[in-house]
Amino acid sequence: MSGSTSASVKWAAFGLLLCLFLCVGCGSVATQKAFYEPITAELKDGDFHSAAQRIEAAKAENKYKKKDRFLYYVDAGLAYHYASLFDTSNQRLTQAEDAADELFTKSVSRAATSLLLNDNVLEYAGEDYEILYTNLIMALNYMAQDDFDGAFVEVKRANEKLNLLEQKYADASRRFQEGSSDDEEKVEIDYSAKKVRFNNDAFARYLSMHVYAADGKMDDARIDYDLLRSAFREQPHIYDFDVPDVKYSSDDKSMLSVVALVGLSPVKEALNLRIRTDKDLDLVQILYTDPWRKDSEYGHLPMSVSEDYYFKFSIPEIVPRPSLISQVQVYSNSEFLGELQLLEDVARVAEETFQAKKSLIYLRTLARAVAKGLAAHKAKEKVDTGGVGGWLKKEAVDVATDISENADLRCSRLLPGRIYVGDFEIEPGTYDLEIEFLDENGDVVSAQELKGYQVLKSGLNLIEAVSLK
Q1: Are 423 and 248 within 8 A, CB to CB?
Q2: Where does 301-443 have alpha helices with state H?
Q3: How would DSSP label each residue in 6-19?
Q4: Tens digits of per-residue pLDDT, 305-333?
Q5: Which of 6, 11, 19, 268 reaches 20 to 30 Å from 90, CA-CA?
Q6: Is 94 buried (19+), middle (13-18) or exposed (0-12) by CB count in 10 A?
Q7: Strand, coil or helix: what is 397?
Q8: What is the band of 110 on the pLDDT scale with cuts at 50, 70, 90?
Q9: Cα separation, 179 vs 172, whole angstroms
Q10: Model's pTM, two decimal places?
Q11: Which residues constitute the domain of residue 163?
Q12: What is the DSSP letter of 66?
């Protein structure tokens, strides 16, 4: 074997080993989500106890890292809720709420002082819609236990968080604008928080309306009824469907209310983009990479750059998950009682509340990608020794840069996708109830029975049905 061939083989081996090392070493900047697949399958099959056990097993196997503890708490809390283990659910969801408050401030502070950190490395503080539904699922837990005070507290917290969303991101904007003397990279970004166009949640109003009515506070119930309707009127970008015909009282009969949690919430997927810099125009152009939009512009920013470069980066986007269910019907003693109506599309809420953070993620990721891309270019120039060895070294630099730019796709995958409700005037008494979940062809996808349900003359008659298919 000649000397040059031997050297090429050594460089090839070195390059392969270096790429393998980098792939393993950068695992912490890629979102781990494969372990959700069997959990999701059991959720769709309605085996909620097994799903909860799988989540606990995943936690024991360190699938939920310490930086992902919010996700563990909220996932476990949701699984226990579906399994009707309401006390355990509230324990986990309370931990999720506490973790969200603590981690948001910490993650913003850390991100602001080291802008080149990949978001996957930071502690996950939860999305605002996840935190909102954490409180509302806790309210359902308390309502199932006839604890009206507990339910009121959770709905109030949910409403307060919505009211403070704009201030939350205004504070984050100021933190990033100020920067920090500890930011060794000296990367500047011009972040201005987007206006939050969501401050009134219809599901929260629906729950408090019924709790007020059950507690005999009819004036308060009427106020929430009006606020529910105004949520649709004033926020058509979220509630782009008809207001459901909700009721909270009846003159001579009882009110039976049904809440159905349907399908699964949206997830985050990576939107892969490319950066192209123009040193003459002091411009950074962001281009799509997918086949149907390839090289069309996603956006651009004025930014002084020293050379013309072209490299990859990714940002997360909210993507709804399809559901088999398009209709929910209620039967009482085998007779058709009525059809539930859509009250909330969780994907719409998720998309809107994500907008305030998305602009920050976009600018941070862009600044980081530009800085890393330029550093990678310089590194490749230094290792350009020619031949196979130089090529492999440059490839290793490219691999390291690309795999360190994975989008942060962490999110809870156990929330429902849509919420349906129905309020039916019915005589007090004992009923065998059945809730059928139908597909677009009218075929039954799943059904839930409740034998011997006692409808009271007064108080709260609210049942929950779940089909996450």
Answers
A1: yes
A2: 346-382, 387-403
A3: HHHHHHHHHHHHHH
A4: 776 777 788 899 999 999 999 999 999 99
A5: 268
A6: middle
A7: helix
A8: low
A9: 11
A10: 0.86
A11: 3-467
A12: G
